[in-house]
Write a structure and sequence with these properties.
The complex is a heterodimer. Chain A has 20 helices and no strands. By secondary structure, chain A is mainly alpha-helical. Chain A folds into 4 domains: 57 residues, Annexin V, domain 1; 70 residues, Annexin V, domain 1 (Orthogonal Bundle); 76 residues, Annexin (Annexin V, domain 1, Orthogonal Bundle), CATH 1.10.220; 69 residues, Annexin (Annexin V, domain 1, Orthogonal Bundle), CATH 1.10.220.10. Chain A is elongated and about 65 Å long. By secondary structure, chain B is mainly alpha-helical. Among the domains of chain B are: 52 residues, no CATH class; 82 residues, Orthogonal Bundle (Annexin V, domain 1); 72 residues, Annexin (Annexin V, domain 1), CATH 1.10.220.10. Chain B has a two-stranded antiparallel ribbon with strand order 1-2. In chain B, a hairpin with a 5-residue loop joins strand 1 and strand 2. The radius of gyration of chain B is 23 Å and the shape is elongated. Classes of the chains: A mainly alpha, B mainly alpha. Chain A: This is Annexin. Chain A: One of its GO terms (cellular component) is cytoplasm. Chain A: One of its GO terms (biological process) is response to water deprivation.
Chain lengths: 316, 310
């Protein structure tokens, strides 16, 4: 569930644009004003604001934001203002240019979005980068990582609830066999995770547990230092328990020495309109402290205020 | 006798010459039909002393009568449903039809292929990629799954230096064919399934310059790989070849279907270019070949599709 709070009486788009323009005027920037508007508008409203702002002032709102804001605060506002498909395309493109930890971002986008959302991200990628997502992923990854990531980012999974139990049983068997043999990059193993519907995968993993006793997660823990295995485990989690995955990412980001703002910003902006409420509940359950409080402890200034607003903390 | 010959002719080829069948068979007396049963070759003498339809021939006739109906149904269909159904059928038919999957995945625009994937969800409650991945087992599996999953960028922009280095990667894969079949080579699959078509055209241009010969002239390259490359960079040549093979004497059941499939799926797209390519390659206008090999309503339907708007 979404954590976004939008006021009952939303000002007109023109008013929002005027206020935002005012926030940029003069020497400083009125960050609080920016937060009070943008952090309380949904994707459709933000899109309209961007369009109207560009029509009225001849400049992309994002450009103005870039000129006026800096650092973590700028990034969280920028990512938030983008519409979800563009945001995913932006994050994916960034991930192809970085090092290995960003394989996780690619997998996260590919596996936690709906088929339609992933597709829209691919379309936004064409428009913005004049290339396909898959050609960049293919070019910038290699070995087992590529074997896993390419099928994941090009998937267009069926989204129905129908489940074939016989198939689930036979594919659970295949998974178990490959994992027992430690052939984690096996074609069939990857095929199952990359092409089956999420409902079918869920059924398969239930069969796995029923028949073999362990959660597949436990069986994939063979080598804690193996990055590929890490990615594989995270893939499974993203496909069937995304809220657990995101809770973990947040926990690690916050507990890390100095905080991983990149991860924190990414999770909050990409999930605020999707399931951040569920993730918050999971965070509280797992860490015995509300996510809001952890964010307050770990971040500061306008960055903190923006995150809290997106987390639905307090009132507008 | 001339009439029996004419009748046999009316039944052989693509489709059925209904007018001839009506005028000869429809006007026949019992003794004429008996002569046809004795001479035609469609019947065999049963042990109980009557000429009995050869089951195999009845089946063949059924296909020929259905050709027109199938063409009409396919033509009226939404292109997305059409492509989804063609892929499903190809998967059911087995490895010999894998080229149809390559054809659809590689000759359609990005949005057309996407549409086929959507329609496939609705029609079959699975994704194309999961069915292709679970039903295909040969060396071509990796490539096929990757091809049906593509959503290629469609702009004209290409990076020549990247194209050149990718041409080199292909050359290297072909040189190493003994150790690993190029169709299973990860780089080959990546390049063919992710790059834009303009980029690929450039890649294969560099291939020719560096290797000294066209990729399609390389020996020992898996036919499916050749087909994929042809579909991606010179689809009209690919289609005119499929048409020619379909109309050859003795073509098998599946190959014959190429005639309907290509005409129906390309009539709104590039049938004229395919026609031109056909004439250049096979020295006879496509329409003339169809006139010679196809029969009856089926023939007229195909020729009408081709002639529209000209």
């Amino acid at each position: 569930m979404s954590t976004l709070t939008v006021p009952a009486q939303v000002p007109s788009v023109t008013e929002d644009c005027e206020q935002l323009r005012k926030a940029f005027e003069g020497w400083g920037t009125n960050e609080q004003l920016i937060i009070s508007i943008l952090a309380h508008r949904n994707a459709a409203q933000r899109k309209l604001i961007r369009q109207t702002y560009a029509d009225t002032y001849g400049e992309d709102l994002l450009k103005s934001l870039d000129k006026e804001l800096t650092n973590d605060f700028e990034r969280v506002v920028m990512l938030w203002t983008l519409d979800p498909a563009e945001r995913d395309a932006f994050l994916a493109n960034e991930a192809t240019k970085r090092w290995t930890s960003s394989n996780q971002v690619l997998m996260e986008i590919a596996c936690t979005r709906s088929s339609k959302q992933l597709l829209e991200a691919r379309q936004a990628y064409h428009a913005r980068f004049k290339k396909s997502l898959e050609e960049d992923v293919g070019y910038h990854t290699n070995g087992d990582f590529r074997k896993l990531l390419l099928p994941l980012v090009t998937a267009y999974r069926y989204e129905g609830d129908e489940v074939n139990i016989t198939l689930a049983k036979s594919e659970a068997k295949i998974l178990h066999e490959k994992i027992s043999n430690k052939t984690y990059n096996d074609e069939d193993l990857i095929r199952i995770l990359a092409t089956r519907s999420k409902a079918q995968i869920n059924a398969t993993l239930n069969q796995y547990k029923n028949v073999y006793g362990n959660d597949i997660d436990q069986d994939l823990e063979a080598d804690p230092k193996d990055e590929y295995l890490d990615l594989l485990r995270a893939t499974v989690q993203c496909l069937v328990r995304p809220e657990h995955y995101f809770e973990k990412i947040l926990r690690l980001a916050i507990n890390k020495q100095g905080t991983d703002e990149g991860a924190l910003t990414r999770v909050v902006t990409t999930r605020a309109e999707v399931d951040l409420k569920v993730i918050k509940d999971e965070y509280q359950r797992r860490n015995s402290v509300p996510l809001d409080r952890a964010v307050v402890k770990d971040t500061s200034g306008d960055y903190e205020k923006m995150l809290l607003a997106l987390l639905g903390h307090g009132d507008a | 006798m001339a009439e029996i010959e004419a009748l046999i002719k009316a039944f052989s080829g693509h489709g059925v010459d209904e007018k001839t069948v009506i005028s000869i068979l429809g006007n026949s007396q019992p003794e004429h039909r008996q002569a046809f049963r004795k001479e035609g070759g469609f019947f065999a003498e049963d042990e109980r002393r009557f000429e009995r339809w050869n089951d195999h021939h009845v089946k063949l006739l059924k296909h020929e009568f259905m050709r027109f109906k199938n063409a009409v149904v396919l033509w009226a269909m939404h292109p997305w449903e059409r492509d989804a159904r063609l892929i499903k059928e190809a998967l059911k038919k087995g490895p010999n039809s894998n080229s149809v999957i390559v054809e659809i995945a590689s000759t359609r625009s990005s949005d057309e292929l996407l549409g086929a994937r959507k329609a496939y969800h609705s029609l079959f409650e699975h994704s194309i990629e999961e069915d292709v991945a679970s039903h295909i087992h040969g060396k071509e599996k990796k490539l096929l799954v990757a091809l049906v999953s593509a959503y290629r960028y469609e702009g004209p922009k290409i990076k020549e230096d990247v194209a050149k280095s990718e041409a080199k990667a292909l050359i290297s894969a072909v040189k190493n064919a003994e150790k690993q079949n190029p169709i299973e080579n990860d780089e080959v699959v990546r390049i063919l399934s992710t790059r834009s078509k303009p980029h690929l055209k450039s890649v294969f241009k560099h291939y020719k310059e560096i290797a000294g010969q066209h990729f399609e002239d390389e020996l020992d390259v898996h036919l499916i790989l050749q087909a994929a490359v042809q579909c991606l960079i010179t689809p009209q040549s690919y289609f005119s070849r499929v048409l020619d093979e379909a109309m050859r004497d003795g073509a098998d059941k599946n190959t014959k279907k190429g005639l309907t499939r290509v005409l129906v799926t390309r009539a709104d797209v590039d049938i004229r270019a395919i026609s031109d390519d056909y004439r250049n390659h096979y020295a006879i206008p496509l329409a003339d070949k169809i006139e010679a090999k196809a029969k009856g309503s089926y023939k007229e339907f195909l020729l009408t599709l081709m002639a529209r708007g000209s």
